[in-house]
Amino acid sequence: MESHDINRLLIMGNSMGGHGAILLGTILKAEQIIAFSPQIDLSIDFLERIGDRRWEAKMNEINTIGFDYLDLSQLDMSYSDVRIFYDGSEDLDRQHVSLIESHKGITAEDVRVGGHATAFALAKSGEVARVLRSYLK
After folding, report:
1. Residues 33, 121, 136, 13, Cα dihedral to 10°
2. Predicted model pTM
C-alpha cells in the first residue's frame, strides 16, 4: 500500500465475500474491515459439526484445493477495526461469528434483520451508507 501512496484502506464483503474481506483485510492490515454474515471457518469438519450445508459443493471444492486460510479464527486481526453485522436469529451465521467475536479488534453486531441477507436489509434501510460515511470522515 505504501508504494502506491494509499494511507487508508477499507475492505467490505458479504457472506463468502465476508470471509474474503476479513482475510484480505487482515493480510493487508486494513484500517477497517466490514463483513456481513461472514463464514469464518470453511473447514469441512466445522461445517459438518454445525450442520452448515449451504453451498456444500463449493465448500468441498475449496477444501479439496487445499486453501490455507479455511479458519479465520487463527488469524491476528488486532491491526484492523473489524465490524461484523449478522442476524443472530440465523443460527449458522451466529455460530460462525461466535468463533471470532471475542477477538481483539472485533465488533460483532447482531442486528436481527435480514437472515443471511443482512447486507441487503441494511442497505435498504440506509445503514450500510451510514457505516461507510462514518468511516470516510
Report:
1. 30
2. 0.91
Distance from C-alpha of 64 to C-alpha of 126, rounded to nearest angstrom: 39
Where along the chain do its domains lie? 2-136
Report DSSP letters for 86-135, one per residue.
Answer: E-TTSHHHHHHHHTTTTSTTEEEEE---SGGGHHHHHHHHTHHHHHHHHH
* Residue 11 to residue 133: CA distance in whole angstroms: 14
Cβ–Cβ under 8 Å, residues 81 and 49: no
How far apart, in whole angstroms, are the C-alpha atoms of residue 95 and residue 6?
Answer: 35
- Three cell numbers, residue 67: 486453501
Q: Which three cell numbers stand for residue 137?
A: 470522515
Span 3-54, pLDDT tens digits? 667 788 999 999 999 999 999 999 999 999 999 999 999 999 999 999 999 8
Question: Top-level CATH class of 2-136?
Answer: alpha beta
CA 62 from chain centre, in angstroms, equals: 17
